[in-house]
Amino acid sequence: GAALGLLFEMLSSSSKVCDPHPGQPYRGGKFYAFLPDNREGQRTAMLLKKAFEQGLTFQIKSCDGEDRVMWGLIPHKTAWDGSKARNGYPDTQYLHEVCTVL
């Protein structure tokens, strides 16, 4: 089936009070996620967009002595294939699971 791709671009900035090292710079990045291009996938994309707008999609973590933007607790498929083990499809339960989290 067809894929619906999502791109999240997080710019580098300074962290807020609730982050691991408040006031310190952190590195952003580009993050890609994939959904099936069908009614359920499009509905999920809208929910993911709302979660992003509310600041729930990403978190700042310290990694190798550097603070950087990383995926938060909402699961995203970062590959179109490769199976569930590689964060891709096929994964028949993903849309149900992510909608439960959202």
Task: Summarize this structure briefly.
The protein has 102 residues and is an alpha+beta fold. It is 23% helix and 31% strand. The chain has a single domain (3-101), classed as 2-Layer Sandwich (Enolase-like, domain 1).
Keywords:
102 residues; alpha+beta; Enolase-like, domain 1; two-stranded antiparallel sheet; two-stranded antiparallel ribbon; 31% strand; elongated; Deltex_C; metal-binding
Structure explained in plain terms:
One of its GO terms (cellular component) is cytoplasm. It is found in: Cytoplasm. The chain is α+β, with helices and mostly antiparallel strands. It is elongated. The chain is built from 2 helices and 6 strands; from the N terminus they run ββββαββα. It has a single domain (3-101), classed as Enolase-like, domain 1 (2-Layer Sandwich), CATH 3.30.390.130. The two termini are 24 Å apart. The protein has helices at 39-53, 94-101, and strands at 3-10, 13-14, 25-26, 29-36, 58-63, 66-71. The model has no long low-confidence stretch (mean pLDDT 88). A hairpin with a 2-residue loop joins β5 and β6. The strands form 3 sheets. Strands 1-4 form a two-stranded antiparallel ribbon.
